[in-house]
Every structure is written in C-alpha cells, then in structure tokens.
Specification:
By secondary structure, the protein is of the alpha+beta class. 53% of the residues lie in helices and 18% in strands. It is built from two helices and three strands, in the order H-E-E-E-H. Strands 1-2-3 form a three-stranded antiparallel sheet. Helix 1 runs antiparallel to helix 2. The protein is rod-shaped, with a radius of gyration of 20 Å. The model has no long low-confidence stretch (mean pLDDT 87).
C-alpha cells in the first residue's frame, strides 16, 4: 500500500529521529562512586556495566563492599535514566506530544 507523500516523509523523519536517539543513548557514558570513591562503576546508555574499580581498602569487608557496589550501580543507573530522558525530551519536544509520554 502506497502512503501519501507527506505521510511517507513523516515516516522517514520518524525513522531518522529514532536512529539519532539510539545513537545518542548508545553514546552516553556515566561514572558513579560510593564509599567516598572506594567503589566506582562505569555504565553506558544501555545500562551495561562497563567497569568496576574497587579500592584495596574496601576489599576487607565483604558486606560493606557489596553495599558500596550496589549503591554505585544504582547511582549509575539513575544517571543513565536521567541523561536518556533529557536526550529524548530534547528530541521529542518539538513534536507537541503530551508531557510524560516518553
């Protein structure tokens, strides 16, 4: 089924915007730490953990170390969410969509 020219152009624009948004999110890199920097986590925009750095002093207490890793991961996740939402809002802001839709 052939779409009217205007609709076809809109679909192409939507596909370009979707690709740009994916590229922007893929490019996000965040770093978060816990325990005064004893544990540092790096995460990408797809919420994939890219690295964990643990200070040797933190290795002695397993329970504390677990808590710091969890805190750093949660902080990194929140940073990715915030940055992703900001990028999506900026890109979709001109479309006139209701707030909170994305």
């Amino acid at each position: 089924m052939k779409m009217p020219g205007n609709m076809n152009a809109m679909m192409q624009q939507a596909q370009r915007m979707q690709q740009k948004m994916k590229e922007d999110i893929d490019a996000i890199r965040v770093e978060a730490s816990a325990g005064g920097g004893m544990v540092t986590v790096k995460m990408d925009g797809n919420k994939k953990c890219l690295g964990v750095k643990i200070d040797a002093e933190a290795a002695g207490d397993a329970e504390m170390l677990q808590d710091m890793i969890m805190a750093a991961l949660n902080e990194a996740y929140a940073k990715v969410e915030k940055e992703s939402q900001a990028k999506m809002s900026a890109m979709l802001g001109g479309l006139g969509l209701p707030p909170g839709m994305f």
